[in-house]
From TrEMBL:
This is Glycosyl hydrolases family 8. It comes from Streptacidiphilus jiangxiensis. Residues 1-33 form the signal peptide. Keywords: Glycosidase, Hydrolase, Signal. It comes from the Bacteria. GO terms for biological process: carbohydrate metabolic process. SUPFAM superfamilies: Six-hairpin glycosidases. GO terms for molecular function: hydrolase activity, hydrolyzing O-glycosyl compounds. Belongs to the glycosyl hydrolase 8 (cellulase D) family.
Amino acid sequence: MRERIARVIGLGVALTTLTTGVVALAAAAPAQAASPTHAFPQHQTYQVGVMPSASQSTRDAAVEKQYDSWKSNYLVHGCASNEYYVSTKGDGDATNNGPVSEGQGYGMNIVPLMAGYDANAQTEFNGLWQLVKDHEDQWGLMQWQLDGKTCKYYSSGTPDGATDGDLDIGYGLILADKQWGGYSSDAMAWLTNFWNHDVAPDGHLKCEDDGPNTDTRPSDHMIDHLRAFAAYDTSHDWNKVVQRTETVDSSLVTNYSSSYGLLSDFVVGANGSSPAPAPANYQESQPDNIVGYNSIRVPWHMGTDALLNGATTSAFELGEAQKWSACAKKVSGDNPANVYPHLNLNCTAYSTSDVAEEAGDSIGPSAMAAGDQAWTDKIWSFLQTNPYGDGYYGETIKTLVMLVMAGDYWSPASSSTPANDFSVSDSPASASVVAGASATTNVATAVTSGAAQSVALAASGLPSGATAAFSPASVTAGGSSTLTLTTAATTPAGSYPVTVTGAAASGSHTATFTLTVTTASGGCTAAQLLTNPGFESGATGWTQTSTLGFTPITQATTAEPAHSGTWVAWFNGNATKDTDTVAQSVTVPTGCAATLTYWLHVDSTENTTTAKPDTFTVQVLNSGGTVLGTVGSFSNLDKATGYTQHTTDLSAWAGQTVTLKFTGSETDTNGGTTDFVIDDLALNTH
């Protein structure tokens, strides 16, 4: 069995200084390089979700900067004069910073996607492919681990191939064939070898080409790759592989992580009806029965498939992306830097001393697919950094994730040359108004391929009495317009999905704006919706959790008195790392405005005026656990004497059953401790 060398960064652990440098790249272009058909940047309109708020030009520039850095550090011209390889510099996955098939596959994906920006892309791709061909195992797939100086296989036993590298190499050959042409025979031969040796008889993916037919590795479940294989190679039933892979993953999620959608690093019993997480030390020294350095890649792959193929084709993957994104946001305290590489399947951190850039990076496509704009923007910003000094693995995953998040990740499943096309989006995507009032949103367009064209804007699905006005009524793709939706005093209360349509010569695209209308008066029965809002009946009506076992709802003390009565919800304050939650499900009636009020007291011994090691959030979640909005955010910096009342508008969720969740998180990183105490809550309709 082969083993990924564990990456542990944190608690003063420094990266090992590596002695083998990266060989300078050849500057000469190929003598007869083909012009790229899909030259970078290829602006895509994804089927679901949101894009980072940064402009398209800003995103493109960030990808170019990251690619330049990745190429200069990890793309090596050697061992032979016509070979290139992706160095594992900084991670120690191969002797002398040599290549592994996983990284070679990553490179064969990145380079074709950057053709047009990189004039030498085809030469580099050919060199990457040449090294693969020069180091095939007995099954015609790449030997998974090579020395950086000799490029000889050095791992123990008979040379074998790894499924993830084999997958990406096959996908890279299809990309190259669509980009430049001339790789079809190589691609078909590779896919045939992959089918014969990496696919188990029942259709699931094995972990390696000489491995058993009983196990699988969820990080290999690159569904978008398999869909591209199905479109490109009709001689094999790749849809069978897609379906079996989804069946295995669905069973695992249902039985082991139904609330969070997490998948363990390795799985046994994949050829049966009850697949299960592998034993803890099944293949690697890190626990194989939870999320680790393998499965951190799952949200990247699941989110990418959902973005490319939409809610119907990729229904399972979209659901997984939504759950995984919500878990990462929860466990990290809404901070991508604290998405830990090892997670238990119940969405708790296995270890908080191990941190890695790639864990937070990989969540990006899932956050996009989940439609979480704020979380997507935070991850995009995080991608511009490398706080833990990660090497090959993190920086290479980052490059691919940035291509997806920038909207420059095109699918080779279609062979047609992109025509003139555009996208439409709105920000904000929803608003709540009292009948008779107006709401505005910015409608932005972007060129996704070809040249800019004139786009006429229109809105449909308005409620009775409402009107829509665009200023201007048409734009050149790349421009924006202000949409004003004006309701009448007689407009019925309710939530209305308004379709914003942009029409051009190439066709039309739409975005949805949700308009919630409430009545000015008399249309809603005033009520207080929370059960046991002052906690005077203990935990009645509430659910609560605590990682240390000290449930928050408790009787008040002289140190932490109640605002009124004798009970409170008391979060943290234990002088050690802890996360406490209190939550209640509530239905906000249609046609009502709703206001949440609560009294909060914060006291802290943290000795800092800038850092926020301890935080408290108020969030609204849907029935699936996805965060719909964060409506309150506090920290140790908000410490004050006595209680302060806070008020927030929840009218946007009228007509929905939502969960109101309060979360206190203490990291114990600064030596102090913080208490967050709430009391006398109310959720009033009016």
